[in-house]
Design goal:
By secondary structure, this protein is an all-alpha fold. It has six helices and no strands.
Length: about 100
């Protein structure tokens, strides 16, 4: 990697310029499963704006399912983490990129 960056930028980077990656185990990432969370009825969700056609659609779905809009992605992720749907989706295939 350092050889490629040297060619691209024309300078040699020190060995400690490479930042490694360590994946967090799924169990450490997910919040404890909360089975008390309620989901809207399917008909109520179907009545919300389609996010692929309406800018406010994703916010409406987020508010209806986890109680916040999608503006703050960190908060949205924290609120989605304990839901049964999130647990089920992430546990289906932990080797695939998301």
């Amino acid at each position: 990697m350092l050889d490629v960056t040297s060619q691209v930028f024309g300078v040699r980077f020190p060995d400690d310029a490479v930042i490694g990656e360590e994946r967090q185990p799924l169990e450490d990432f997910l919040a404890s499963l909360d089975l008390t969370l309620s989901l809207p009825a399917p008909d109520d969700l179907a009545a919300l704006p389609d996010p692929s056609r309406h800018e406010a659609g994703l916010h409406a779905i987020a508010r209806a399912t986890v109680g916040c809009d999608a503006t703050n992605q960190r908060e949205l992720g924290q609120r989605c983490s304990p839901t049964p749907l999130t647990h089920a989706l992430l546990k289906t295939d932990t080797q695939r990129a998301r």
